[in-house]
Design brief:
The protein has 521 residues and is α/β, with parallel strands linked by helices. Helices cover 31% and strands 24% of the residues. It is built from 14 helices and 20 strands. Strands 2-1-3-4-11-10-9-6-7 form a nine-stranded mixed beta sheet, sandwiched between helices. The protein has a five-stranded parallel beta sheet with strand order 14-13-12-15-16, with helices on both faces. Strands 17, 18, 19 and 20 form a four-stranded mixed beta sheet that branches. The two termini are 34 Å apart.
Length: 521
């Protein structure tokens, strides 16, 4: 994306680094996240960032060998913003001092920052509500005990006397808190000020991206044929429509029915793409293959890897039937790429692997086309609008590539999947009937690997329990459970138990993310 001004986020391992990128993308700034060890002098020269952000991280700069950026980053003449661990890195690198955490300086959670005597443009719009302070979100044990030469203090908190510091002559800024998270309500304003100071034009839009992506697809593919892995979800569907607009009949979509789809989903996908969009489509019913391979597997990571391997095998089989096929297209998104980077040495802890990341086995003989790999989910939806997809389709809740496999903790059986499909359909019907679908980021049922005793009529039952899950979120990185009324939950539980043979107990999952994930596996 060299035609855009670019901002570089150097990742030191924070679990919320993606939120920094999201806040900047929302401001129409193109940015990329790269692990600190990949950012070399040569990388900086090639990337040519207009500004740099240092992320937070779990390490301590007081430890020998702790993550650091290349020294040259301070000499390339662009604004730098250090966040939490990133602030401590700047102070330690530039002549200040950081001390290991002590109980009276550690801060975790909500805190209040008060301004220094002088005002700076980075803080325009801050400290304006008459209280003389701003709510922020802290998560640090170590603390800056001495700021680097050239820096001044512009904000303090009870546990961070140097909560906001800056060297205005070099346009270096450092904050101890996390402005990217929801719990720093005015954090967006701080980012707006930073990119304004850096001189960004704000030219990152989905209208421009559509034109650029089509041109890149045509340049990459030429006159070859492309196979697109179509799941029916928003990501793969936008990928397919974008590719069809770029290369027309050179595209063949392969829709893999792995037996892990929701009720009637296969028929809906085939009807929409084959009939409505007139896209060449192969409906590959491979449910027996997947379910047989998954038989007896209960480990969630093994499930994901098995499904990913079989997807590749299925694509290989169908690629052999398409003359001139040279490329495989996937709906990989930027969060997939970032969350999988730990496999190649990134500093973040790997939470889960993604079945559509990591390239293709050489034996396939196909190259990879991933036109969405630079986009976040909401950007994909905006691109879908640009491409003319119906709003009702674009607004569908996310559905994972491994499908119902990760909503069925423990071993997967056909019986459990049938029960799960019916319960999930009733739950979504209830949500739509009550007008709540668009308020919720994602909702689904998980069937639990336990049976419980119940009473129906005059008889004893010993059937499965299920958990309802519904969350609100902006970007899927953090999430809160949706506050259904007890009347809604009671009505929904009654319908599921009455209409789905095999379930006699319904629970509601009220776990937020973190500490939980949205999906159960």
């Amino acid at each position: 994306m060299t035609q855009h001004d670019r901002l570089l986020i150097i990742d030191f391992g924070s679990q919320v680094t993606q939120l920094i990128a999201r806040r900047l993308r929302e401001l129409n700034v193109y940015c990329e996240i790269h692990p600190y060890q990949n950012v070399t002098d040569a990388f900086l020269a090639d990337f040519a960032p207009k500004a740099v952000v240092f992320s937070g991280g779990p390490d301590s700069v007081t430890r020998a060998g702790s993550p650091r950026p290349p020294a040259s980053v301070y000499d390339i003449g662009v604004p730098i913003l250090g966040i939490c661990y990133g602030q401590q890195v700047m102070m330690q690198d530039l002549g200040g001092k950081v001390e290991a955490g002590e109980s009276h300086t550690a801060e975790f959670g909500r805190a209040w920052v008060t301004p220094g005597a002088a005002r700076i443009d980075l803080l325009n719009g801050w400290f304006m509500d008459g209280s003389g302070r701003e709510q922020v979100w802290m998560s640090h044990g170590d603390h800056v005990s001495e700021i680097a030469p050239g820096f001044e203090v512009y904000g303090t908190s009870p546990g961070a006397p140097f909560a906001i510091t800056a060297d205005l002559s070099r346009r270096f800024f450092a904050v101890q808190f996390h402005p990217e998270v929801h719990h720093t309500p005015n954090g967006k304003t701080l980012y707006e000020n930073f990119i304004r100071l850096a001189g960004f034009k704000g030219d990152w839009t989905m209208g421009a991206y559509r034109d650029e992506a089509i041109a890149r697809i045509r340049d990459q593919v030429g006159d070859a044929h492309v196979i697109c892995g179509l799941s029916g979800g928003v990501d793969s569907s936008v990928t397919a429509i974008l590719l069809h607009e770029a290369i027309g009949d050179q595209l063949t979509c392969v829709f893999v029915d792995h037996g892990l789809l929701r009720l009637h989903e296969a028929e809906e996908v085939v009807t929409m793409f084959r009939d409505h969009y007139n896209i060449k489509l192969i409906h590959a019913d491979e449910s027996d293959l997947f379910l047989n391979e998954l038989d007896g597997i209960s480990d969630p990571e093994t499930k994901r890897k098995t499904i990913g391997r079989l997807f590749i095998d299925v694509f290989q089989k169908h690629a052999d039937t398409i003359e001139g096929a040279a490329f495989l297209a996937q709906g990989t998104l930027y969060p997939d790429v970032i969350e999988s980077v730990s496999f190649s040495g990134g500093p973040s802890v790997t939470i889960k692997s993604h079945h559509n990341v990591g390239g293709l086995p050489e034996k396939m003989g196909l190259k990879l086309v991933e036109p969405l790999r630079e986009l976040f989910k909401d950007e994909v939806r905006a691109l879908g609008h640009e491409l003319g997809l119906p709003a009702s389709f674009i607004g569908r809740h996310p559905f994972p590539g491994p499908g119902l496999a990760i909503r069925c903790p423990g071993e997967i059986t056909r019986e459990k999947l049938d029960i799960l499909r019916k319960a999930d359909a009733i739950y979504i019907d209830q949500i739509r009937k009550h007008g709540l679908y668009d308020e919720i980021w994602q909702a689904f049922v998980a069937i639990l690997p336990v049976r419980t005793v119940g009473v129906m009529g005059d008889g004893r039952t010993y059937d499965y329990a299920c958990a309802l899950r519904a969350v609100t979120s902006v970007d899927g990185m953090t999430a809160d459970y949706y506050p259904f009324s007890h009347d809604f939950l009671g009505e929904t539980a009654t319908r599921i138990i009455n209409e789905v043979k095999g379930i006699n107990r319904v629970t509601y999952d009220i776990t937020s993310k973190p500490p939980g994930t949205i999906e159960w596996e």
